[in-house]
Design brief:
Elements (H helix, E strand, L loop, with lengths): L8 H4 L6 H7 L10 H11 L1 H9 L6 H7 L3 E2 L7 H4 L17 H25 L7 H22 L2 E2 L2 E2 L2 E2 L6 E2 H21 L3 E2 L8 E2 H18 L4 H5 L3 H9 L6 E3 L10 H7 L5 E2 L1 H7 L23 H4 L1 E3 L17 E3 L3 H5 L6 E4 L1 H14 L3 H9 L2 H4 L10 H14 L8 H8 L15 H6 L25
Antiparallel strand pairs: 1-9, 2-5, 3-4, 6-7, 8-12, 10-11
Helix pairs in contact: 4-7, 4-8, 7-8, 8-9, 8-10, 9-10, 10-12, 12-17, 17-18, 17-20, 18-20
């Protein structure tokens, strides 16, 4: 990791709020007749989930290239760095502010810091004298905003400038990704506690849905497990995570699929999913089809653009994937981009005019974290039982996995790549990263965007190819 002894206090000054500011300026006395100021602050909190969702799923973000870097989705189109970062052999991320697709990290970085600033302001107000119509609800939303912003910065970047309701932390200097993740988990624990002691509904905050405080707490628990499990940059880090903490989260996690309503791309933007599944854009990487049909190639075998359909005992090959007997991608960009399948599971959303529900988090995601926690803790029978009560058997109609550690680990990885595809942004990339399966030279995380470094007068750095520390900043060898 490249540590930079810098402060971005001038850059981030407007993002940090103090409790004193709220005590003096934002005091509200009557919640039955709220002032416009209270309404405005609650409106800001009400947007935190939407702003996070629109940031991580945004076209102008890392989601599309992460899916191709993970060999889960394949696209040879240049958009948002997909072609550059899924080229073979793998190359370093171009971190120059002048790079055509620099926005893929800049937008994500800036937006998450803006969300963190809003969340910090809300929490500062709650801890001050500002009144809210439902303090438990708005504390939970504010703490979620803090945890989500810090967590997703830590998942993607090598270092993070952290802050909370008290202002900038660590003297305004960056911390490593794991320290940012720990702070994110602390904030999410507070969000969970507020949800558990409250009695409220989450409705307008998540478009088209109405979730009770109990359901919101379940989501937050699984969300925390997601941040923790996916923070590891390699298998050693993954094995050394606090798996008891993961198990505790998942035992209180999702018992339903967490849907997010869609409005035809007016105010809710599931961009990375849309581009990944829209005909002519994303296809399913051959690696996944070869996982489902072991006789099928996991890598395009030659110059012939057509392969016959695959066959599989997994019922999802028919329900979730569509066979195609032609190619969209030019051969001169690399036939390794070719595939004979696209992901069709969410075609109902395409057919609805982009207004049907999509899912940021499936119950299966929680069960896979739980199964891995059991496995890591040596509870083999419990791990197998968890897998066999979830998507592998229920949707895939595959035989139950045996009480065998290697078979369980393989089943967990398989389900993450197949079942969770095109739900949470980056899940395939984080899974491949944490299992040392990314192709050699693939960056394991991204550097602070070049534009931010330029603004602070700091030399630009990057990762990938052979740049950085092997096994910590870029992959030293993966699935092929």
């Amino acid at each position: 990791m490249k540590q930079l002894k810098i402060t971005f206090m001038a850059v981030f000054a407007l993002m940090f709020y103090s409790c004193d500011d709220f005590d003096t300026d934002l005091e509200v006395d009557n919640v039955e007749n709220p002032t416009s100021l209270q309404i405005g602050n609650e409106a800001t909190a009400d947007k935190l989930f939407q702003n996070w969702y629109n940031t991580v799923d945004n076209y102008y973000g890392p989601g599309l290239m992460f899916a191709t870097m993970a060999d889960q989705t394949t696209m040879s189109w240049g958009n948002m760095g997909m072609r550059d970062m899924s080229s073979e052999p793998r190359v370093a991320w171009n971190n120059a502010s002048t790079y055509t697709y620099a926005v893929a990290t800049e937008n994500y970085f800036n937006s998450l810091h803006a969300i963190l600033a809003d969340a910090n302001a809300i929490v500062a107000g709650i801890e001050g004298d500002m009144e809210f119509s439902d303090e438990d609800k708005y504390e939970s939303l504010g703490r979620f905003g803090q945890g989500a912003a810090l967590g997703y910065l830590g998942l993607v970047f090598d270092q993070v400038w952290i802050s909370d309701e008290t202002g900038a932390l660590n003297g305004g200097e960056p911390v490593g990704y794991m320290e940012a993740v720990e702070l994110a988990l602390d904030k999410l624990d507070m969000a969970i506690a507020a949800a558990d002691r409250g009695s409220f509904s989450i409705d307008s905050q998540v478009y088209g849905q109405s979730y009770s405080s109990e359901q919101w707490s379940e989501f937050l628990n699984t969300f925390a497990a997601r941040i923790l499990v996916n923070s590891a940059r390699n298998e050693q880090e993954r094995n050394n995570l606090d798996w008891q903490r993961v198990l505790d989260y998942t035992q209180n996690g999702l018992t339903f699929d967490f849907a997010v309503g869609q409005d035809g791309w007016i105010q809710w933007w599931p961009d990375f999913i849309g581009y990944s599944i829209y005909p002519g854009w994303g296809r399913v990487d051959m690696r996944l089809i070869g996982m489902m049909d072991e006789s099928y190639p996991q890598y395009w075998p030659g110059a012939d653009p057509i392969l016959p359909p695959a066959s599989s005992d997994d019922a999802r090959l028919e329900s979730d994937f569509e066979y195609l007997d032609y190619q969209d991608f030019p051969a001169d960009r690399g036939t390794y981009h070719w595939s004979s399948y696209r992901h069709s599971r969410y075609d109902y959303w395409l057919g609805s005019g982009f207004t049907a529900d999509l899912y940021d988090m499936l119950q299966a995601e929680n069960e896979l974290y739980k199964a891995e926690a059991y496995l890591q803790l040596g509870m083999i029978s419990e791990a197998a039982a968890t897998i066999n009560a979830s998507s592998r058997v229920l949707r895939g109609e595959l035989p139950p996995v045996a009480d065998d550690a290697a078979a369980i680990a393989a089943a967990i990885h398989y389900e993450r790549m197949i079942e969770l595809m095109n739900t949470g942004m980056g899940l395939g990339f984080f899974e491949m990263r944490g299992k040392d399966l990314l192709q050699e030279g693939t960056p394991l995380h991204l550097p602070v965007p070049g534009a931010a470094l330029d603004a602070a007068g700091i030399p630009v750095y990057t990762f990938g190819g052979t740049t950085g520390t092997p096994g910590e900043d870029y992959s030293t060898g993966g699935w092929r």
